[in-house]
Amino acid sequence: MNLTFIVLCKDLADSKEIGRALASSPGASLLLATDDPEQLFTETRRLQPSAVIISLAHMGEPAIKLVQRVAAECARTAVICASRESSPDLILRSMRAGARDFLRLPIIDEELTTVIERTAEFAVEHAEDDPKKRGKVIAVFSSKGGCGTSLIATNLALMQKTSTVLVDLNLQSGDLELLLGVKPKFSLADVVDNRERLDDALLASYMTPHSKNLSLLAAPIKAESAEDIEPKHIYEIMELLRHRFDNILIDTPHSFDPVTISALDHADQILVVLTLEIHAIRSTRRALEIFDRLGYPRKKVRLAVNRWSKNIELDQKQVEDFLGERVVGFIQSDYKAAVNSINLGQPLVTSAPNSKVTTDLQSLANKLFDNQIEIAPSIPNGKRAFNSIFRRQNESEDIGLAAALDRANLSEAQ
Q1: What pLDDT, on a 0 to 100 scale, did the predictor assign at position 342?
Q2: Residue 291 and residue 300: Cα distance in Å, rounded?
Q3: Averaged pLDDT of the chain
Q4: CB contact at 8 A, 337 and 344
Q5: Residue 391: what pLDDT?
């Protein structure tokens, strides 16, 4: 679970210390740090973070009254008090006012871990009280360019039976509108600029409709607009989209910049796309290691191989052993169909509904969305046994990519 925090602190050094501590805690995100009590209250009501941390230093009695106000009017947000003074009387007063925890400064790692764990428990308990719907977020990611993430994200989005938004997070080079054959008038930049006054109607006006169930939230039309988009904006927008759409698919950049990490933090699942060439496979393993350091559970991550061909002499088990993760989907290589889809501005599921690549995409979508998709017509006998597609055509051959993968494994072990 991704926990979000807003911090109120009058002391700059304390504010930085709390910010650094949250940044080093897996699964914790700092949305806002402020020294203005009214801003904390307003943003807490708007963003509904998991918790607010209120530093009591230099505030006196108004701090206790603020704790009471937030606890009374923002019931789904845990209140945590923090102070360098930790007398029993101060702790008791803060708890009586409505605080759930007290964090002593300077921060002690074990105490912070306990507070975050208790905040996670509070968030789980109160998630059931939220009357708003929570759409499912899937981020499509590859740490190496050219693996086909945009094409896959677009086709997965178009298969959905219920309300779906496709978000183009390639802020300076997004081109999902070309794959969908639409021309956006507005973009993610407009949503960010107007986020403080967004309602359902205004948010809908910034979307580019494609079909009955699918809309596009396009990348900024002007590249320079991307510079104003910050990680906290991505969190806010994802929350807004979750309450309006059943499914949110994010086409992410091929990097671990702060904006991308914010989206990955927020995703329920991350679909990592790779191709079966040595650089893509090694890059995928490094990405999985970064996910581990970010605190993502492996059940959040799914792997899919794109542009698979029967001519690739590589054993499936060898790839999975190298990556330490099972591959859940394989999408056949069909250069002609893919290029035709891009040139026509029509996703594969509509431009080539009977192709084997579309059948593979449907199979992958079924696994990601629990069979809740619209299936395009497919050709007879289009399915293949999952475990057969990496079977060697010639068991005696052990050259090319497979040998390179062995060498990579050996070199990284040394």
Answers
A1: 83
A2: 10
A3: 85
A4: no
A5: 40
Measured CA to CA, the distance from residue 317 to residue 325 in angstroms comes to 10
Record the pTM: 0.68
Question: E strands along 121-235, which residues?
Answer: 136-141, 164-168, 208-209, 214-217
Distance CA 14, CA 19 (A): 9
Terminal CA-CA length for the chain:
36
Helix H or strand E segment including 273:
strand 269-274
Question: What does the pLDDT read at residue 184?
Answer: 94
Of 85-89, 162-166, 351-355, minimum mean pLDDT range: 351-355
Distance CA(18)–CA(31), nearest Å, equals: 12
Q: Which two tokens stand for residue 102?
A: 């007290």
Strands 28-34, 3-8: parallel, antiparallel or unpaired by DSSP?
parallel
Alpha carbon 7 to chain centroid distance? 23
Contacts of 214 (CB under 8 A, 6+ apart): 157, 158, 160, 164, 165, 166, 180
Contact between 139 and 263 under an 8 Å Cβ cutoff? The reply is: yes
Residue 260, both tokens:
């991308």
Q: Which residue has the higher pLDDT, 20 or 401?
A: 20
